[in-house]
Amino acid sequence: MLTTGEQALSFSVKSIDHIFPGFKQGELAVLYGHTFWKTLIFRLCVHCQLPKEKGGFNSSVIFVDGGNTFNPYSISAVAREFGLNTKSALERVIVSRAFTAYQLSALVLETLEDALKHYKSKLVLISDIITLFLDQDVPAREAVEIFNKIMFHLADLATKRSIIVAVTCSNGEHSKRLVFLESTLVGRASTTVQVIESRGRLQLAIRNHCFPEPLTIAFSGNESTLEKLVEA
């Protein structure tokens, strides 16, 4: 649970926030499962920019896009919901795209810390972090070695710089490599959020030190703007 004076960054979704207060600075979080995680990370992108009295960190966001996930229209929609200028909200999300595992590795291991110092961002988002490491052009042993370095570095950055690092993972074709990388990903995380679709309803299964057994939150699709932002 949060300690006195400690602020968390929530999804700003009433049916979720009243049970799960959000991510704390110093955390490495993983969101995976149903693609509704895209909606959740876009909400984090904008919520982080709000002033502290409105639940934000008054901070820019660094978005490392490993799966061609970033959607400026979704950011704009959330910004309008929060009463922010859409152009300013987009400008405060610093996007870098990676098209290979090696590019993603370079962005995280070589440039991310300097970007954090320059922009003073309190939130780093990395989308589809595993997908590029499933490329058969990347030898399995090398993929595992690089991925381990990336995850160790992200966990260290989160703690050292007192920031939130949120990483996403899409469902992929089952393989031995995928299973190993997913176990590494989840093993490094301080909080995991699995999005599950069951009988037409969405659920979040959240696990961290406060919830060693999954905390399950079910919510309907009638939240004012959420379903409009869900992407296929």
In short:
The protein is of the alpha/beta class. The chain contains eight helices and ten strands.
Structure keywords:
232 residues; alpha/beta; Rossmann fold; eight-stranded mixed sheet; globular; disordered C terminus
Write up what this structure looks like.
The chain is of the alpha/beta class and 232 residues long. It has one domain: P-loop containing nucleotide triphosphate hydrolases (Rossmann fold, 3-Layer(aba) Sandwich), CATH 3.40.50.300. Helices cover 38% and strands 23% of the residues. The chain has 8 helices and 10 strands. Helix 6 links the parallel strand 6 and strand 7. It is globular and about 45 Å long. It starts with 7 loop residues before the first strand and ends with a helix. The C terminus is likely disordered.
User: Strand count, sense and closure of the main sheet?
Assistant: 8 strands, mixed
Classification by helices and strands: alpha/beta
**Number of separate helices:** 8
Shape: globular
The fourth-level CATH homologous superfamily is: P-loop containing nucleotide triphosphate hydrolases
Mean pLDDT: 88
Instruction: Return residue spans where pLDDT drops below 50 for at least 5 consecutive residues.
Output: 222-232
CATH class: Alpha Beta
Give the fraction of residues assigned to helices.
25-40%
Task: Give the topology string: H per helix, E per strand.
Answer: EHEEHEHHEHEHEHEEEH
Number of strands: 10
Gyration radius, rounded: 17 Å
% residues in beta strands = 15-25%
